[in-house]
Design a protein that fits this description.
Layout: E1 7-11, H1 15-23, E2 30-35, E3 39-41, H2 46-50, E4 60-62, H3 63-66, E5 73-77, E6 80-84, E7 89-92, E8 95-99, E9 102-105, E10 109-111, H4 129-148, H5 152-158, E11 160-164, H6 168-184, E12 198-202, H7 214-226, E13 229-232, E14 237-241, E15 244-247, E16 250-253, E17 256-259, E18 263-265, H8 268-272, E19 282-283, E20 289-290, E21 293-298, E22 303-304, H9 317-335, E23 350-355, E24 358-363, E25 366-369, H10 370-383, H11 388-404
Parallel strand pairs: 1-2, 1-9, 2-5, 9-21, 11-12, 11-17, 12-13, 19-22
Antiparallel strand pairs: 3-4, 6-7, 7-8, 10-18, 14-15, 15-16, 20-21, 23-24, 24-25
């Protein structure tokens, strides 16, 4: 690094952090990108890892590989523990702090259990590769244990899958699990019929996919119902344990519970001692900077940015990508003595897949559903993958799955605990 060049530190290698780094590729700055993992994950397809359609390596790529040709970037795998705004320093766990002149924080969000963090043990959410492989194991082992038991009540419980939350992730998970049970493994077992599995989607609000228009939400419910999914709206979860969920008006015994009901921002507000909303998102200025600290930017799911009418921008991948590009260009403009107008989100549309041949898409006034929506959804997701090789791999995988009803990543794996018995090899 050139000591005379401005130092830009980016915390988080999600959509926002990666886009910010790329936007600064020609800037006369030295960039340090910090993330606690060594890979960038394409989160919109994590549910396909969780349901055995794709392997983890097909939706995650090494950060160093993504930025290998960008000479002004240094990647550090480290966990950030805090930020000293006055000293302009990022504190790291078990490592020396990193100084900055401009700081971009894009650390994303995690699952929110609305004050009941103890539910996380029984109802995993879906934000990381580790979450996806855990859920995959839980889903597949449910069928295996149902094959093993002779207790009909226990078998019914093991073959019950509850998804809490009717947003895009919940709808996509419900549809994918139904496909596994109805098609992928329907003929693989001898003592059970996987097609008898109960897949139940719970939504506390009046309808699923609440950010989409009513006609698309209603279509999603009809499509899920045709696949055998039970959709229950206006149903709030009040408890969760190893054997199912408690509701305001009853209980569902289940072998697998998956949480897709809400998110909370990473602890950036605490690091910065900043004003934040109920979800922990830092309230930022129109240019995405921290009020009173113009060289500190917060973007993506950890930022509460609003339009001119006070309406918050949506917490989705396109928002994070656009914010990252904006901040990178803003830093370049300021280095050249200029500036940019406030950030403005350009909505590319909303979409969600319900299953084979079924998806819903909203782009402005245009509404797509069914097979046409599914084709559009597939093309969009393949286009935004990183690297031509991965686009071909996933396109071929989806085509093969579509033609054969097979899913190629149905492995049940678990990291064994270390042997502490004192014995040798």
């Amino acid at each position: 690094m050139d000591p005379k060049r401005p130092k830009v530190v980016i915390v988080g290698a999600g959509f926002g952090g990666i886009e910010a780094a790329k936007a600064l590729r020609r800037a006369p700055v030295d960039i340090t990108l910090i993330d606690r993992t060594n890979h960038h994950t394409f989160q919109p397809l994590l549910y396909q890892v969780a349901t055995a359609a794709l392997s983890p390596a097909e939706v995650a790529w090494p950060i160093r590989h993504i930025l290998r040709s960008q000479k002004n970037v240094t990647v550090l795998m480290a966990e950030v523990t805090g930020v000293d705004l006055r000293l302009k320093r990022v504190e790291l766990k078990g490592a020396d702090p990193v100084d900055y002149e401009r700081l971009i924080i894009a650390t994303g969000a995690t699952h929110s259990y609305f004050g009941h963090d103890e539910w996380a043990e029984y109802a995993p959410g879906l934000k990381r590769i580790e979450d996806a492989t855990r859920i995959r194991r839980q889903i597949l082992i449910g069928f295996e244990r149902a094959e093993l038991t002779n207790d009909e009540a226990e078998r019914a419980r093991l073959l019950t899958f509850v998804i809490v939350g009717g947003g895009a992730t919940g709808v996509e998970m419900a549809g994918a699990i139904a496909e596994i049970a109805r098609y992928t493994i329907a003929k693989d077992f001898r003592r059970i019929d996987p097609r008898t599995a109960r897949i139940i989607l719970l939504e506390a609000g009046p309808r699923v996919l609440p950010t989409l228009p009513t006609d698309l939400s209603d279509y999603a419910v009809r499509a899920l119902t045709r696949m055998g999914v039970v959709v229950r709206t206006n149903t709030r979860v009040t408890g969760c344990d190893a054997r199912g969920v408690d509701l305001e008006n009853g209980r569902i015994d289940a072998g697998t519970v998956i949480w897709a009901a809400g998110v909370v921002a990473s602890p950036v507000a605490k690091w910065l001692d900043a004003e934040h909303d109920r979800a922990g998102r830092v309230i930022v200025s129109p240019d995405l900077s921290l009020p009173k600290w113009p060289d500190v930017f917060v973007i993506g799911d950890v930022a509460r940015a609003t339009d001119q009418n006070g309406k918050p921008w949506p917490g989705v991948a396109p928002t994070a990508k656009q914010m990252g590009r904006y901040v990178g260009k803003l830093i370049m403009a300021r280095l050249e003595g200029g500036t940019l107008p406030p950030f403005r989100y350009r909505d590319p549309g909303d979409l969600a897949t319900v299953g084979r041949r079924a998806a819903v898409v909203k782009i402005g006034p245009l509404h797509l559903k069914g097979f046409i929506g599914w084709l559009f959804w597939s093309v969009v997701h393949i286009y935004f993958l990183i690297g031509l090789r991965y686009r071909f791999i996933i396109a071929f995988t989806w085509l093969w799955d579509y033609l054969t009803f097979q899913r190629g990543a149905r492995l049940i794996t678990e990291v064994p605990r270390a042997d502490r018995s004192g014995g040798g090899e």
